[in-house]
User: Fold this.
Amino acid sequence: MRRIAMTAVASALTLSLAGCGVLDATGGGDEASPTRGNDIKVGLLLPEKVNSRYEKFDYPIIKAKVAALTNDKGDVVYANAEQDADKQESQLEKMIADSVDVILLDAVDSHAIAGAVQRAKDADIPVIAYDRLAEGPIDAYISFDNELVGEVQGRTLLDAMGPRVDSSDKIVMMNGSPTDPNAKQFKNGATSELSGKVTIARSYDTKDWDPKNAQANMTEAINAVGAGNIAAVYSANDAMAGGIIKALEAAGVTDLPPITGQDAELDAVQRIVSGEQFMSVYKSYPAEAEAAAEMAVARVQGRDIQFDALTRDKVVSPTQEKVPAQLVGVVALTRENIEETVIADGIYKISDICTAEYKDDCEAIGLT
Ligand code: GAL
Assistant:
């Protein structure tokens, strides 16, 4: 709601100011304008490819939106770090050397990248932290409300455990990468819901968010706690939930405990349909990615009123107070609301989810 309202305000402003000749997207005119026109280069640095969101949604949505906002003249220069923080630093350095106009940065390691962010700033290239709050002097931050993601996961897991859930019931917590600040927020949000209500028997931070590492951690948890004693598993995202299920199945578990996730990955949505995974968190990628593109273009073109309207929230980073931000809301995705979320937003078609293997399960929940 908040986002929709803000977008409406922002475009109304654009219209009225453009009508008065105040905003000049082409940068031409008599008055010397420090702002750029439509012929701009937006650098986009994404962290990895294991989760499908980055290449399937974030990148193409941002590219299309930048094109739409610049009369097809703006370009997105894209690089993916494949989970390698050093590689990402070189990619950022290259973007500075190539003089891109603005950088959208989704950091592999939010702390390690700070020096390169400073070098971009020194080169007068604004950096907008995308999805993860990078350290160093950033101009703005756009993400989902990540504490809320964790809370939604924790709450839904308790619902799944049922009304007889007891504080002695043991759960395993599989958190995300320690170099990703979101992982800490997901964990904090979830812990705030779970603590006192269940026993967190084992908790892991999973290197690189790698499903194989999650599988190895889960195997260790099963050995320590006993497969039959694990009442539920908190998994910070869907890809790791896949690894966790493999570990449980390898230990002979046939009746899987409730397992959480995040990202609405296609195979996770299918597991939700079949009942192997209890929930995911649906984050509207168009909402985040389009707002990021709007911010980047507004910044380069010097549309400060629009930029401020897009960044009305404020967050604090370890290196910076009061970062202008936009935090987008999220919803729990369960068997009950597949149609209202990923289908309604055009993320997947029913035919993508309800393949031959899932046909019966889809019919059972009315997804046809
Ligand atoms: C998080 C992101 C999630 C998920 C995860 C693994 O920072 O918010 O959506 O993709 O990283 O890369």
About this structure: The longest strand covers residues 320-328. Residues 48, 51, 53, 131-132, 176, 180, 182, 209, 237, 262-263 surround beta-D-galactopyranose (CB under 6 Å). The mean pLDDT is 92.
